[in-house]
Amino acid sequence: MGLYDRCITRGIPASMMPAGYGSRYDITQSPDSVVIRYEMIHEARTIPFNVPADAPRGPRKYLGDARAWWEGETLVVETTNFRAETAPQGGSEQVKMTERFTAVAPDTVLWRVTFEDASVWTRPWTYEMPLTKVDASQQVHEYACHEGNLAMRNILSAQRAADAAAAAGR
After folding, report:
1. How far is CA 45 from the centre of its chain?
2. Which of 10, 64, 72, 124 has the least C-beta neighbours within 10 A?
């Protein structure tokens, strides 16, 4: 079972991409960080501002290690240090994802994402998508992935039974 099936992570940028449901997100800025909270899987990325380029990265993370800064009116978020199983868009652990959030209208932010990984792609590539502000009544809702979901319990118990049978030589 994948991480998404197990309600651990949809990964980024997938959590920002439209889906059948759970497509809301909230971007909140404080003086020292920005937080992007996703409705899908109910993840949150806390991204510090102005971290020195030579600051240590720490252990690899499902959502990578993100750092943010402002370039004029554009919020830039650079994320590296992904775990192999969540490296975005088929990249390796060496992928660098750079997001640029630029307000282009009172209710629209242009989200531009560039991926760089010389071990996978011959050159960086980019896509962009407008993020449209919705009215305050459309809040991010709790994503209760396992509430009443018996599938995961049944899948895990079946696998454990198969493992026990294999160990017993059956």
Report:
1. 8
2. 72
